[in-house]
């Protein structure tokens, strides 16, 4: 039976082109709707199997608004839009689509995206992924934590920001009017969030207590209007002295307002941004879908007994912990390949791992460097029916640009200069087993195209070959990059992103699971005690408390190296001192101050930009950047593209 597809698109020419393509491919188009209202009528009458959904439509409602209802109805959908900026992609992602097609597109692009979407839908039905939006899960978990209010608010802000970007957030009770529980959250230039009490806000903005009380005696009057950009925002400034003071100090240019009713109380969440035209009805629509999350913030944080004024603004509470001894029983789940920890976040990842491991579903492992992504990949393979076949690991970041295709797909003898014999590529080596593509975000666009074909067609073609070879490989990928950002900036293919992101497993950073530090320390003491001649068997409470206060930018890998180093430097059986980085600098990292540890990529980008500026943008020839850097101009061009360096940056 032909699958029925409803097209929700307000541009008739685009919609008609879609209809022709779909009918040619054997689908049945059951209607075209230019608005959300018309779409809902057709859904009720025609009962489509799939919906192709534009974001900006006729009327007040957007495709984002409709998407929430489609998820509740269990109707799978794919976005079609000309807008792929990061804000739109993040907002769209929060509604859990099965794909995203960028206008203009070719017939082949549409068919590939539909294939990807069907595959994702089948997997999601199997794992029942679409029960609840991920943002609500994140906020629920953070709100329930036994941590200071300010710490939880920072974590919630970081979770919300990709969906609704803001530079300042004001949470206040508007009915009955009171400012005693007001919360102010500012976003620093380095992306960290600062939680301000009223006193701290007045001090920072140089506003007198008397003026503040006068200005805030009434709630922010917005007459039900959610968005104020440009002229509307300037008019709002004139009507509200408090908005004027805040916007002057923080350079705010637009606002998005939503109200949450709780019993007889009404709270306002007022999101500000420094861009004058940022907020659209997409953002008001997405906020509407996450009102349960905002209600949870009010119930568990704003109305909690803790006070922002009384809670330390930074850091975690120091908890006295017993000395950890080598002989102490450590709960190690052998099925998880020596991955240590009993925190809720880690066990959530374990549950997902156990669920997906026995299947052939593609898995994308997300997490910072040092969180154990490779161990998770090994464990997925170990718990799968493919465990007796090879697991081939490929570090995409380490592949030479000129040899990527040869490494992944192999080559025939004589296919290029230096190809003196036939080479079997990594995919062929993994046939029957699994392939782990680490740092997939580093793969160049040209190789991404070929990878997508391998995933879709399940076949490879060696360089210089004239035939294709079928392969049976499970794909496991990992990245520490924000792939949505990579897509928005043109460095990662959107269709490949949706094909890989079928079953994501997010690994928490060590700073988000500090309760696991004692068990990890004990494990590494035991591990290196068996390997070497150290007599160390335990660690003191003071040393553990020092480790609890540290931010751990290098995660578990950094902790392991610290324990190994400390054991070598310790005389006796107990580690009493750990050589952590400068506490002032570590605190700055943890608390969002100006100090920031730069990644290798950031340093490489800065270095290349510096050379380009010195050469006034010249890349090729004598005196060009490639000559100075002593690398081929083709390699430099690839790096410039990968690092997102634009010409205007080097003027």
Automatic annotation (TrEMBL):
Pfam families: AAA_lid_14, Response_reg, Sigma54_activat. One of its GO terms (biological process) is regulation of DNA-templated transcription. SUPFAM superfamilies: CheY-like, Homeodomain-like, P-loop containing nucleoside triphosphate hydrolases. The keyword DNA-binding applies. GO terms for molecular function: ATP binding; DNA binding. Keywords: ATP-binding, DNA-binding, Nucleotide-binding, Phosphoprotein, Transcription, Transcription regulation. The keyword Repressor does not apply. Residues 4-118 form the Response regulatory domain. Residues 339-568 form the Sigma-54 factor interaction domain. The modification 4-aspartylphosphate is found at residue 54. This is Response regulator.
């Amino acid at each position: 039976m032909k699958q029925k597809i409803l097209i929700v698109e307000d541009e008739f020419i685009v919609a008609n082109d879609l209809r022709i393509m779909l009918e040619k491919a054997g689908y049945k188009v059951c209607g075209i709707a230019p608005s959300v209202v018309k779409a809902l009528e057709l859904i009720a009458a025609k009962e489509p199997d799939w919906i192709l959904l534009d974001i900006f439509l006729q009327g007040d409602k957007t495709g984002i608004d409709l998407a929430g209802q489609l998820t509740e109805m269990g109707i799978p959908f794919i976005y079609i839009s000309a807008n792929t900026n990061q804000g739109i992609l993040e907002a769209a992602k929060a509604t859990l689509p099965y794909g995203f097609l960028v206008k203009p597109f070719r017939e082949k692009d549409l068919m590939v995206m539909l294939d990807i979407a069907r595959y994702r839908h089948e997997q999601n039905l199997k794992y029942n992924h679409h029960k609840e939006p991920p943002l609500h899960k994140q906020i629920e978990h953070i709100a329930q934590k036994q941590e200071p209010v300010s710490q939880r608010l920072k974590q919630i802000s970081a979770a919300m920001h990709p969906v609704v970007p803001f530079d300042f957030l004001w949470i206040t009770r508007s009915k009955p009017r009171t400012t005693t529980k007001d919360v102010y959250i500012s976003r620093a230039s380095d992306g960290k969030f600062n939680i301000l009490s009223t006193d701290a806000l007045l001090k920072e903005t140089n506003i007198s207590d008397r003026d503040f009380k006068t200005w805030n005696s009434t709630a922010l009057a917005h007459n039900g209007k959610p968005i104020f950009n440009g002229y509307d925002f300037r008019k709002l400034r004139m009507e509200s002295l408090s908005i004027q003071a805040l916007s002057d100090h923080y350079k705010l240019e637009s606002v998005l307002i939503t109200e949450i009713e709780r019993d007889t109380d009404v709270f306002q969440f007022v999101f500000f941004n420094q861009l004058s035209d940022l907020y659209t009805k997409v953002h008001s629509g997405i906020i509407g879908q996450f009102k349960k999350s905002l209600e949870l913030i009010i119930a568990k944080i704003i109305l909690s007994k803790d006070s922002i004024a009384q809670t330390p603004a930074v850091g975690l509470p120091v908890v006295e912990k017993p000395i950890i001894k080598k002989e102490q029983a450590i709960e190690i789940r052998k099925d998880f390949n020596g991955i240590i920890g009993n925190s809720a976040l880690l066990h959530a990842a374990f549950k997902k791992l156990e669920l997906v491991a026995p299947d052939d579903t593609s898995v994308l492992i997300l997490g910072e460097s040092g969180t154990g992504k490779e161990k998770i990949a090994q464990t997925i393979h170990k718990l799968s029916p493919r465990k007796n076949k090879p697991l081939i690991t490929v570090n995409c970041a380490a592949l030479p640009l000129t040899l990527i295709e040869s490494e992944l797909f192999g080559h025939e003898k004589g296919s290029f200069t230096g190809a003196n014999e036939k080479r079997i590529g990594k995919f062929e080596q993994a046939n029957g087993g699994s392939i782990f593509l680490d740092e997939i975000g580093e793969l160049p666009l040209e190789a991404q195209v070929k990878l997508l074909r391998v995933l879709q067609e399940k076949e490879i073609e060696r360089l210089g070959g004239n035939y294709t070879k079928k392969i049976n490989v499970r794909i496991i990928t990992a990245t520490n990059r924000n792939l949505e950002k990579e897509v928005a900036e043109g460095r990662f293919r959107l269709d490949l992103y949706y094909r890989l992101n079928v079953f994501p497993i997010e690994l928490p950073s060590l700073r988000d699971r500090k309760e696991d530090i004692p068990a990890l320390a004990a494990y590494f003491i035991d591990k290196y005690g068996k390997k070497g001649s150290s007599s160390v068997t335990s660690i003191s409470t003071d040393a553990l408390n020092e480790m609890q206060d540290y931010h751990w930018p290098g995660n578990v890998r950094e902790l392991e190296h610290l324990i190994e180093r400390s054991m070598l430097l310790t005389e006796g059986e107990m580690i009493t001192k750990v050589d952590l980085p400068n506490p002032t600098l570590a605190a700055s990292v943890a608390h969002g101050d100006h100090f920031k540890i730069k990644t290798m990529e950031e340093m490489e980008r800065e270095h290349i930009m510096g050379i380009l500026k010195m050469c006034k943008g010249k890349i090729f020839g004598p005196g060009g950047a490639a000559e100075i850097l002593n690398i081929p101009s083709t390699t430099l061009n690839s790096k410039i593209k990968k690092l997102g360096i634009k010409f205007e940056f080097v003027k």
